[in-house]
Give the backbone structure.
Amino acid sequence: MAAIEFDGVAKRFGSVRALEDLSLSVEAGEVFGFLGPNGAGKSTTIDILLDYVRPTAGSVRVFGADAQRETRAVHERVGVLPDAYHTYDHLTARQHLAFAVEARDADERPLALLDRVGLAYEADRPVEGFSKGMTQRLVLAMALVGEPDLLVLDEPTTGLDPNGAREMRAVIRAERDRGATVFFSSHILEQVEAVCDRVGILSGGELVAVDSIEELREAVGAGTTLTATVDRVPTDLDRVRALEGVFAVSADGTTLTVSCTERAKKPALDALEAAGASIEGFETEETPLEELFAAYTGEA
Ligand SMILES: Nc1ncnc2c1ncn2[C@@H]1O[C@H](COP(=O)(O)OP(=O)(O)OP(=O)(O)O)[C@@H](O)[C@H]1O
């Protein structure tokens, strides 16, 4: 069953078209990254999914339940790290978790949850003086309470230091491993690539692509630079150049550089060997994610 199904969802705020005809299915057990530049409509999509905002058109189902008409049933299965959150200054991190555990009728230990987000050492401090990143960790821990079937995380790594971002990725993987679906928005491409099975790219309120990052690279012909060290450069490189997905081949000493699609990498290496070269080593360099993103969103 699909964990989330958006069907023809549109949202207007006055004259602003925040979302246009969004149809998208996120499978149960999938880690799905929702990418897009500022103002693309990511938070609006999440707000509609959680019924914080009503769509102008279309509907959303979460594990088959209608997000607008069966909001309570949806919320019972979802853990949320929202765009904006509120914490209680005078309560400690542990007390926040204890409340969340009670509200969800769960039985986790607050300290164990704080440990998962690297905040156990601050468990008994009032959250008043927490930094943005610490608060973000706390709210994530609260989202994990009760082992929700779906985690919805709005920009989860914004405001986190590199350790925090790494821990966030570990939490996302662990949640996936226990069978949860994770839907998260981000404009930090590396974060998305590191953990996502598929991504959706939103631009100006429209979904412009949905696929794995690997397939998205293929689709725009954004490829790979393959650098191979050979014992001798074959006299006939045309058979490599003629391969589908190979754009250019050049030689410098015993180093060969091949620009190609991801998929053409192996055939290119095979063709080099077939042409008589013995490959002593090779490296590949992917097209930077920024370029890939720009290809889909038209952003420089
Ligand atoms: N309450 C609102 N009233 C008016 N316009 C809004 C409202 N909420 C969002 N918008 C507009 O809808 C569009 C999409 O905004 P949204 O916050 O969904 O984008 P986003 O992709 O989450 O952006 P960011 O990465 O900057 O958070 C923007 O043009 C925004 O100005």
